[in-house]
Amino acid sequence: MTQAITDSRFFRQECYIGGDWRSGGETIDVVNPANGETIGTVPDFGRNEARNAIAAAAEAFPAWRARTAEERGKFCRAFYEALMDNQQILGEILTLEQGKPLAEAKGEIAYGAAFFKWFAEEAVRVYGDVIPSPWTDKRIVVTKEPVGVVCSITPWNFPTAMIARKAAAALAAGCPIIAKPASQTPYSALAMGVIAEDIGLPKGVFSVITGEAAPIGDEFCENPAVKKITFTGSTAVGEELASRAIKTMKRVSMELGGNAPLIIFDDADLDKAVEGAIACKYRNAGQTCVCANRILVQSGIYDAFAEAFAKRVSGLTVGDGLKDGVDQGPLIEEKAVQKVEDHIADALSKGAQTAAGGHRHQLGGTFFEPTVLTGVTPEMVIAKDETFGPVAPLFKFDTEEEAAHMANDTEYGLASYLYTNDLGRAWRMMEALEYGMVAINEGILSTPVAPFGGVKESGVGREGSKYGLEDYLNIKYALFGGL
Ligand code: ADP
Predict the structure, then answer these.
(1) Do the beta carbons of residue 100 and residue 108 sit within 8 Å?
(2) Locate the Aldehyde dehydrogenase domain: which residues (predicted)?
(3) Which residues are known to be catalytic?
């Protein structure tokens, strides 16, 4: 199967820069996390190639912004169609390098594609404003303009969708974009380069560069031709990039870490809460920034939930994501497994118990058992740090106030979830939660039509929805005098 995937024309081992496929010099190995085997290599490009990509983007910018919104929308629509027409092979490439089950990978292709469709339609809705003038002989007009060259840095957990969320909005707004994917998962990004070429995007409007993160990031942050940095990844790297980008006053969008609470009240529908928690926690083996990191359960339903949830979790199938019937693939790398083990060991040493899993999976490598811990308390490391793995820690609370306090007791503020059948409580909690996103009686909330993003140290900016386009637009105020 691997051979068939790597023989595909979407599988490229070169970078797509300024409309050309480029290679040469050092390379980086890319490994299949399901078996540790090397899939291939990609160029280990650095500052020079990043500078070239930026120069090509800057050159492409005037003509790209000058196109009508409808024309740019058509390119976005074509990008959407191409992703969907090739969903199977793109999903296979994604699973091969990332590990998630193929059904999830194909779901990610569709999710990413949907951003191109959404922004194809939004491109034509970049409205300005006319403001009532305080002067009789002057008029005030507000227009919106593309910010200019955008550089994007994205992580390995959603190799296609994280780029799509940024690129679709940038292209629709009139900005060229350069994507730097994570070194673990470059092939999904390079496949998007193939699509950009296929649909005839002008040279330099969409480039993909692979290589060591730091030098490429340095060029992105320091090059004055770059007007915006859009990043998804860890809070530590995001804060570093933002602080450097601000030296030349670049716009920034930062989608950073989360420590999502999933709160289950006594009055919740138990079966729905269990299913929601499964989807929220074990999707992508727990490696998403919106995965429930803490499950807070009210005391009256705690034992019943723990039992039903642990039973369901024990039935999840772990394996190579390319095989049928797999619910959970491998973790991305050994370091990720060690973090999971550390979090579990710390919790157990402080009094938690294992209700399901708890160990490396018998398949070896980076496979880990879907795990449930009970009796978890706020003093444990797992309460503060994002585990980014298949471990669900169950905390106990008594009152609504206590739940809100526990949920907000973190520097993060990305996604939050709650299960209750009390409408008043749902509304009160929605207001009390210091999060950019709140899902009520649902375990999955991402969609291109809604604004994705966080508050506190989870970042700035929004992706998707009508708000997502604003992140790629500058406001211009024009005063027409002497009337
Ligand atoms: P994760 O834990 O998800 O890998 P990171 O923040 O380390 O989160 O990585 C997210 C993305 O940021 C990846 O593409 C990675 O290569 C990139 N990255 C990591 N360190 C830097 C850096 N110093 N400068 C620029 N990009 C970086």
Answers:
(1) yes
(2) 23-477
(3) 255
For ligand 1, say whether the CB of 213 is within 6 Å of any of its atoms.
yes
Determine whether the shortest distance from the Cβ of 410 to ligand 1 is under 6 A: no
What domain count does the chain have?
Answer: 2
CA distance 204 to 363: 44
Sheet holding 206-208, edge to edge: 20-22, 15-17, 206-208, 177-180, 149-153, 226-232, 251-255, 459-460
What ipTM, to 2 d.p.? 0.95
Do 83 and 179 have their domain in common? yes
For ligand 1, say whether the CB of 154 is within 6 Å of any of its atoms.
yes
Give the nearest ligand 1 atom to 183 CA: 16
Mutate to test the pocket of ligand 1, among 44, 237, 337, 457 (most ligand atoms within 8 A of CB): 237
Specify whether 180 is located in the same domain as 316.
no
User: Does residue 134 sit in the same domain as residue 78?
Assistant: yes
Give residue 354's domain range. 261-440
Report the C-alpha gap between 265 and 425 in whole angstroms. Answer: 9
Do 28 and 138 share a domain, yes or no? yes
Going by CA atoms, what residue is nearest to atom 23 of ligand 1? 214
Residues 328 and 470 in one domain: no
CA of 186 to the centre of ligand 1 (A): 13
- Alpha helix locations (H) across 285-422? 299-314, 334-349, 381-384, 400-408
Does the beta carbon of 52 sit less than 6 angstroms from any atom of ligand 1? no
153 Cβ inside 6 Å of ligand 1: yes
DSSP conformation letters of 165-226: HHHHHHHHHT--EEEE--TTSHHHHHHHHHHHHHTTPPTTSEEE--B-HHHHHHHHHH-TTE
pLDDT averaged per 10 residues, the chain (length 483): 94 98 97 98 98 98 98 98 98 98 98 98 97 98 98 98 98 98 98 98 98 97 98 96 96 97 98 98 96 98 98 98 97 98 98 98 98 97 96 98 98 98 98 98 97 97 97 98 96
d(CA 192, CA 26): 23
